[in-house]
Design a protein that fits this description.
Keywords: Endonuclease, Hydrolase, Lyase, Nuclease, Signal. This protein has 274 residues and is of the alpha+beta class. Helix content is 37%, strand content 14%. It binds 2-acetamido-2-deoxy-beta-D-glucopyranose (2 copies).
Length: 274
Amino acid sequence: MKKLSFLLLPILLLVIISHVHSQLPSRAPVNWYVLQWPPTYCIQLNNENPPGRCIEPILEHNFTLHGLWPADANGYTISCTDSVTVNWNQLIPPIESTLNKFWPNLKEGQPKWSLWKNEYNKHGVCGGLRAKEYFDAAISINKKITLGNLFNYLKTSGIIACDSLAFTKDQIITAVQKVFSSPLHVYLRCPSTGKNATHGYLNEVVLCTDLVEGKYNFISCPQPATPQTCDKFQLLMLPHPQPQSTKAAQRFEEEIDETSPELEQSWAKYAFSI
Ligand SMILES: *[C@@H]1O[C@H](CO)[C@@H](O)[C@H](O)[C@H]1NC(C)=O
Ligand SMILES: *[C@@H]1O[C@H](CO)[C@@H](O)[C@H](O)[C@H]1NC(C)=O
């Protein structure tokens, strides 16, 4: 009987420990730190059906964070059906102004904090991070981009946002790699339709990180999971902001017509400012 309890105790402990941990999936070996070029994001949004609009003015000299996406050891992003309850009203206010600087919502008409909530609920949870850890991770990885914004690394390599200049993928990758102390593999992502068949628009740059002893480090993005979305283009461009789809503007106005005078007023102010 004594012998049996010696055997049972560790088993019982294991059951308890694994139960505590089963609330969240296990930690992902890789996290994609997905930076987007706002003008390209806005072109894509305008092309959606029905078209969406970006909040103006559209940022043209900075990349912004799209999200932090957990991936497996081969580099493929992980999806899951897990969910956790988050006290957003407690979590966000102390970090809101910090997040807004590098991770702003670009899309017009979205509920408060929706970008951050969606990114955590869709991706963050799957990497086994609690919400606080997820946003702290994003903040600490952003600090590792020592020139402040990824675009500064492109600019110092002669890559600028211009509708008449295009660059090779290697030129862009080499410029991005100046973020690291030694060259690491990164992913480039493009929308399927570019300027034309040969010239694509750069949409996103993915830097990869791991988490070791509570610290995030840049690592080489694993291959072969490289998203091939820029492959069909010979050259890439960083577009300037373009006028927002008028169809979307019309739709927006129509929606406003049906709503409160207060909102109508704010639309009038908005229209005046552009
Ligand atoms: C762009 O990023 C830089 C950091 O390099 C920051 O100082 C600047 O305020 C940002 N500009 C905008 C418009 O957010
Ligand atoms: C694609 O667009 C670029 C940039 O505007 C232009 O230089 C190039 O000639 C175009 N190529 C084709 C095949 O139309």
